[in-house]
Every structure is written in C-alpha cells, then in structure tokens.
Amino acid sequence: MIEVVIDFNKVELKDYGDAGYVPSNIKEAVINYVSHKLNIPEVGNWDAFRDNIWILRYKEWIEYREKDEWESYEEYLEEKELNSQYGVKNEQGLRDDLKLIFVNFQPFFLKYRSVACQLLEILFGVIEETKKYSTDDGDDILKMDIYIKS
To answer: N or C end: fewer C-beta atoms under 10 angstroms in the chain?
Structure first.
C-alpha cells in the first residue's frame, strides 16, 4: 500500500506542475494540489477530477487478454501506455493500493467547508462507483483508504 500525505496547509494558489496554470480559487487549488500529489492530470473542475480519480482505482494492465474485448493488440498497447503514466507507483513501478492521509484537514474544512465536502464526496463516490465496474470480481480494483489525522 502506498501512503500519500495530503497536507491541506500546503494548498495554495500556485502552479503545482508543468501546466503553467495558476488556479483562480481555492477549489481549483485543491484539485490541482491533490492531482499533483496523486500524479493525475491537473484540471480545473470537479467532473474532470472525478474522472481522473477513477484511474487510480484500477490496477494497471500487465498482459493482453482476449476476454477484455480489445479491438486489437495495438489498441491494448496504446491504451496501456496512456493509462500507465498516471498514479503513484510502488517499487515495481505499478499503481498500488492507496492510503490517503489528510493532515491539517480540520482547519481547512472549517474555512472552506463546501470545497472540503465536495472533495470527500468525490473520493467516496468514486470508491463506491468503481466497485460496480469490476471485470474480474474485484481483482482489477485497487483499494483506496482515506485517513484524516487530527
């Protein structure tokens, strides 16, 4: 399990990656900071952020399987290359179960309640939704735990 510390004292209106985009409000700053920490594309809205969190719930594809209904082996290779560039990696260079550790969350929550609640709703929602879309009886889904340290 990979531990990722999300320190809400470090959420700022600044560019976290190479995009050259500085968020204009705290919602965008949270999305960009968390995206940067999780190695997913930085986006400016909740819907795109939700879509990117989905990626983290699925194990990376290791082998081509006919039952996955790829149009071709080439399509599989293209999708595998695109998909595998996202997420925090373990020692083997693959996405793994995640333990998200929120620190300094309570002061952030008290100051930006709606943004904090939206973040939690998205994370919890994706965790529940992705369970429904397993193609391998849950073996293709990675665990995501959220810890809030006080």
So the answer is: C
3-state secondary structure of 95: strand
* CA–CA separation, 117 and 28 (whole Å): 14
| Per-residue confidence (pLDDT) for residue 20, from 0 to 100 | 60
Domain coordinates of the chain in residue numbers?
Answer: 2-148
Please give the Cα distance from 123 to 134 (Å, whole number).
17
Q: Can you give the pLDDT at residue 36?
A: 92
The token duo for 123 is 């994370």
| Cβ contacts of 125 within 8 Å, gap of 6 or more | 50
The residue-averaged pLDDT of 123-141 equals 83
The candidate with the shortest Cα–Cα distance to 101, out of 47, 50, 144, is 144
Structure confidence at residue 23 (pLDDT):
55
Beta bridge pairs of residue 7: 103
In one-letter notation, the amino acid at residue 70 is W
59's tokens: 């194990």
